[in-house]
Amino acid sequence: SYELTQPPSVSVSPGQTARITCSGDALPKKYAYWYQKKSGQAPVLVIYEDSKRPSGIPERFSGSSSGTMATLTISGAQVDDEGDYYCYSTDGVFGGGTKVTVL
Amino acid sequence: EVQLVESGGGLVQPGGSLRLSCVASGFTFSSYWMSWVRQAPGKGLEWVANIKHDESEKYYVDSVKGRFTIFRDNARDSLFLQMHSLGAEDTAVYYCARAPATYGASSEPYVHFDYWGQGTLVTVSS
Asked: Are A102 and A10 within 8 A, CB to CB?
């Protein structure tokens, strides 16, 4: 098994860009997925296969991956984007989560 | 619209058993892998188990192997998780998730989760 490492927290002002990283040795060979989790709500898939955005997810969410690091970018972050974000790879491994604060 | 509705959670004593259920609608249930994912209080997401659409493949996180069984009833569009020998470490919200899968070069399944239910809370305490 392997680990996916995320920063515990990221804080940005409204309208700024938030970048959340996810590092792991398997990422050069496996896709990264990103989930948004708000308290009391079900997780929501915001990025799949490194950089694809599901229908209904705002364009301000984007993803990229290079080598052992995947990155979720929220361009022009809004207060409604606050929550925990988890990266995931297809071996059943989640990152520890990053709490995003927009204020 | 894809919907997943879990039930069966509750308070159970250490060492006890519980069966969780998930009813699916809005898609062809029998064509998809399905999964259970949990989140303990104050902790992150943890994958628990996967099951192939025809039940021919099942996978579990090491911490639940031998104690939990994932199974499904395609005729009733339902997914289940039978849990035995529960301990405090199993206290969590359990989510049912649809799990599209592809296969890698070594025939191992690559699963992710695209739709999730609202979850059901399992509390293990005396």
From this structure: no
Q: What is the pLDDT of residue A90?
A: 84
Q: Which member of B45, B117, B119 has the closest CB to residue A86?
A: B45
Whether the pLDDT of residue B2 is over 80: the answer is yes
Residue B43 in tokens: 């902790």
d(CA B47, CA A94): 8
Tokens representing residue B68 in the block: 């939990």
Sequential DSSP letters for B23-75: EEESS-GGGSEEEEEEE-TTS-EEEEEEE-TTSS-EEE-GGGTTTEEEEEEGG
Q: Does residue A27 register a pLDDT over 90?
A: yes
A94: nearest CB among B45, B116, B118:
B45
